[in-house]
Amino acid sequence: MPNWFCGSVTITGSEKYMKPFVEWAKQYDEDNHEECKPFNSLWPLPSMGDTYDEDKWDYNQALDFWGSKWGVCNPTCVEFDDTSLSFRFESAWSMPDTLFWFLEWSHGVEIKATGYEPGMGFVSMYYDRKEA
Fold first, then answer.
1. Which of 36, 95, 109, 111 is most enclosed, with most CB atoms within 10 A?
2. Does the structure show a pLDDT above 80 at 20?
């Protein structure tokens, strides 16, 4: 069982670049959020092929590609419009900073996130394509 990192993220960009994020938000269902794999499917692990597939998940690849064991999990408080998306999330142990960096680079958006991991007692921020 991991220590859970609890974070908040805001993603902004033009309507064109925000489209995949807005599509995710439109299908999001807080009562069934386990079926929503936010953004991990936008950069699946090489072991998974073209789509998110839990059966093909690889621990070491997850750390290398997402910066966290599971990327973004358990989203709540989802708010969005055509140019921004904000929500709270959890991930295993740490900020999924590598996933955020890739999404900024590949999708032309800006991501800012903050969070904390109470078990180990640290806080973290992600902005300007780096974790601080």
1. 95
2. yes
